[in-house]
Predict the 3D structure of the following.
Amino acid sequence: MTGYGRVEKAFHNKRISIELRSLNSKFTDIRIKSPQYYREKEIEFRRILNDRLERGKIEFSLDIVSMEDEGNSVINNSLFKSYYRQLRQLMQELDIPSGDILQAILRLPDVVSGPTEGPDPEEWAIVCQGIDEVTTSFDLFRKDEGKVIEKDLRLRIHNILDGLQLIPALEEERISRTRSRIYQSLEEYLGKENIDESRFEQEILFYLEKMDISEEKSRLAQHCNYFLDELDAHVTQKGRKLAFISQEIGREINTLGAKSYSSEIQRIVVEMKDELEKIKEQVANCL
């Protein structure tokens, strides 16, 4: 499930921005972007996010900008000169245009370094407060999206159940039409006087047993109601179970189509399949 949250805090002459976003994933995958001097806190970040958030591909970004020039950034002069000499030599040997060599060197590792000490305890407390606020905002975003998804899932399931209610009225006509078609075929090949009525009735009963869809209708209704019950359950992670139930719904719909022998019922089955595909798309976005 997608989620988003952003919080900005002020600490003395600094602006602290914390951003949290996620995409749906079967597992918990946390990616952290933070200032260099916060690297020692990465394990703590992961612990907090694992405790507060459900699974997903989660991106956490901490950005701290000083509103004044504190002189915290230092250029490593000897390393800069070494990179410069090596790059100039390579460009001359390979006849490569110099371009903006200055910017290229500044982006190389360890040429520019920031603060080497860990974060100030007061600043860390502000960051922790910001994380608490951004995860709360993130959860609200997910809940709002979840309500929209739940409403759509309920609509799709009820559409399948509505289609199921239309099938019984078509079954009797389907059986009568199938019986007439078989009898007419026998008349054409054997002649009416050569048809054994008793044997014909036995064969019809055997044939109609294969066409019987009573169990499929019952199981489909049960699976749909189970799906709705699961939506009502007071648990946060429902996606996997809903996916399993939707698979069972699909099996019953496919069997209905295979045993229908009716263009009208097939039309209903196609509409059910269309609703089921939309359900699967939404379930893929659920936790």
The chain has a mean pLDDT of 84. The chain has nine helices and six strands. Residues 5 and 136 are 8 Å apart (CA to CA). The longest helix spans residues 121-166.
